[in-house]
Amino acid sequence: MNILISKDQLIGHLASFGAYAIFGLNIIFCKDIANEGELTPIVLFTLRAICATAMFWIAGFFTRKEHVPPIDLLKMCGAATLGLVIPQLTFLTAITMTAPIDLSVVQSMTPIMTMFVAAIFLKEPITWKKAGGVALSFAGVLWLIYQSSHAAVVQTRPLGIALTILNALSFALYLGICRPIISRYSVITLMKWMFLFSIVVSLPFSWKGLLTMNYADVPADVWWEVGYLIVFATFIAYFLIPIGQQRIRPTLVSMYGYLQPIIAAIVSICLGMDKLTWMKVVAALCVFAGVAIVNKSRAKQEG
How far is CA 194 from CA 15, 207, 288, in A? Predict the structure, then answer.
């Protein structure tokens, strides 16, 4: 087997790495915004969708125009529901009623779900090497979470766990089912339509909150965090994810989600809230070793 990966695959890995590294900080800022209580999950999501839609449509004026037939627009609407609306709304709601360690553990199931979704819908084989790589990363991230856990301020509620499971399942379905439509168009074309559909889906439930909210009451530091969510965790991250989806397999893309607790641990160590131990280093190495193993596992059409 060739050890080297192609330039296309390398771009896919770097894009996935970048997106999930951004999402790692996203967790911290979303928790902060949720604790402030000024922005409800549906209002925050709609604000992100409106701003991202504007940015992607403006970017579209400077890129090659692509005709999208009605049937593909319908598929993009489905992709927006699975990949944007359900994951973001469930996450923003669950984070207010779930302890961080419980949220991280349940979200760690996403690559496992994605592996099975890809096997069912894309006929990607579940080889021993792939299953072993996912298991190794899963064990590493659970150990990292355990090593970095502290007393929970938020008591986990059953609804929070249910929403987190729905979050993981919806994004796994998006990564697995929607790859064909994602591979057909440029990232800008795809995202400008998907975020537009996200506004259409969410606005009936958020318009009242958007009109009645007192924006002046929102602290400046919260607006800075919202700005990060819009520019980095929405526009840039969702620009990078389709690049990864187009170039590497769904299970591999989802496994970069294991970066999120690693990023959270690094931030905690840098802020003096946690300390670096050899056990955390081993756990992180297990995560990346698992990704490497899955990358070398047999793909759908390989011999």
Answer: 19, 19, 31
Residue type, 247: R
Contact between 225 and 55 under an 8 Å Cβ cutoff? The reply is no
Q: Where are the alpha helices (DSSP H) in the chain?
A: 7-36, 41-60, 70-80, 86-94, 100-107, 110-121, 128-148, 158-177, 179-184, 187-212, 220-230, 237-247, 250-255, 259-270, 278-296
- Counting Cα atoms < 13 Å in the Cβ hemisphere of 234 gives 30
3-state secondary structure string across 30-56: HHHHHHHCCCCHHHHHHHHHHHHHHHH
Q: pLDDT tens, 31-85?
A: 788 877 788 899 999 999 999 999 999 999 999 899 999 999 999 999 999 999 9
Token pair for 6: 């192609």
Q: How many angstroms from the chain centroid is the CA of residue 245?
A: 12
Residue 251: closest CA among 174, 176, 179, 302: 176
Is the pTM higher than 0.85? The answer reads no
User: Which residues touch 272 (CB under 8 Å, ≥6 apart)?
Assistant: none
Q: Which phi and psi angles does 108 have, rounded to 5°?
A: -65, -10
Between CA 58 and CA 41 the distance in angstroms is 26
- Rounded to whole angstroms, the Cα distance separating 295 from 293 reads 5
| 293, 136 contact by CB (below 8 A) | yes
| Residue for token pair 């004026």 | 61
